[in-house]
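Predict the holo structure. Ligand: NDP.
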Amino acid sequence: MSVSEFDYDLFVIGGGSGGVRAARVAASTGARVGVAEQYRYGGTCVIRGCVPKKLMVYASHFHEAFEDAAGFGWQVGEATFDWSTLIANKDREIGRLEGLYRKGVVGAGGEVFDTRAELAGPNSVRLLAQDRVVTAARILVATGGTPSRLAGLPGGEHAITSDDIFHLERQPDSIAIFGGGYIAVEFACILAGLGTKTTLVYRGEEILRGFDNDLRAGLHREMAKKGIEVVCGHTPTSIGLLSDGRREVTLSDARTLAVDHAMLAVGRRPQTDGLGLETAGVEVAASGHIKVDEFSKTTADAVWAVGDVTDRVALTPVAIHEAMCFVETEFKSNPTRPDHELIPTAVFSQPQIGTVGLTEAQAAEHYAELEVYLTEFSPMVHTLSGRDEKTVMKIIVDGASRRVVGVHVLSPDGGELAQTLGIALKSGATKDDFDRTMAVHPTAAEELVTMYAPSYRVRDGKRVD
Ligand code: NDP
């Protein structure tokens, strides 16, 4: 078959961040593009992830903002919170964004299908709702991931996941959240901020494995100050249903908690079940992720995959970047490998974590000598609010080259800071570049350019003062 004999130049399975971006940009080159989505356009990020989560983060901040206002002379009357208003307003915004995602593809000349799609052969895709098979010169799988459940946990079916939390009819009075990663920590902070009695249960020694230890400990401390019970070193052993509809959670130390909801936030798995990958010759790893090469090509000649369905970095901007590189390579004759180096990221906890580059522990494995600059202080706003909340900033420098190899902040605007710090590190900034950058005064971020002497050094993996 010649390329023009196919129904499409590109057919995309999955209308999330990666799939929609690839479909839209490929269509704008004049390619004949179709995209199928089984649920709602926008995918996890827009429909039940980053976007609705961030709107809920904003909502949860007001509680402390009202309290903090008193120190600045404001008297705020008794504040009340209405969950259903937040959920309805959030849903309206998500509906608007979903419309934009569809419009983007159609406006660029692509076709959108509301259906589950499965591979039906090396160059063909079955559209289930239409009961039709279409052919395509290239197929892109961008089906994302879905929340993992704890197989074998007795009563695990009584737990909700992050897919459900956005649609609860009533705000839970109490919740137990299992996991210590992004989702567990973010939702613990959101729900506690909205007034839910929150317990976070994590199996490891400290939350947020993989992040810098000073920030992990710092955030744990701040969460505890906000009334979140953080239980480390334990797992749930069963979840029972009480006669009043609440859940009874038993932990590995035999303690029991009666809570309105138990939420699993124990990672996400790729959505590849029943996709027909084998009919096209697409191999998956033991984890279920689709195997891809450095250009996002699978083991099949005409099939590529981007985003969370592959085992790279499960973040929206990464999926979008991989999609852009795929289009650049396949539709613009410009072979482009996705760049996964130095990805800035944020945890929208309270305060937020913003981070780019290596943690101190990781850097100590790579470099013989490190300079570590560490500061902890009360941000200016809390001098009048009276709130006991600390900001932490940490810069890790390779002692030999003086290149900044990691920056980590725990601060109310940590996510915003991570973006600009990402530019600095991606540009290869040295500590001297930081030092000769003028401070912006008065800000918290000025600490990043005014820490002139290292707090300590790390030599051959050992801290030396
Ligand atoms: P994470 O991988 O961040 O965290 C999973 C957590 O579950 C870890 O604490 C892990 O523990 C724990 N866990 C895994 N398996 C078990 C088990 N069998 N029993 C008990 N605990 C277990 O996943 P999330 O679900 O929080 O988020 C999924 C992904 O979504 C993230 O990796 C991130 O890439 C993305 N995301 C990004 C956000 C952002 O950018 N702000 C926000 C939300 C999600 P351990 O560490 O010990 O393995």
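The two ends are 69 Å apart (CA to CA). The first strand starts at residue 8 and ends at 13.
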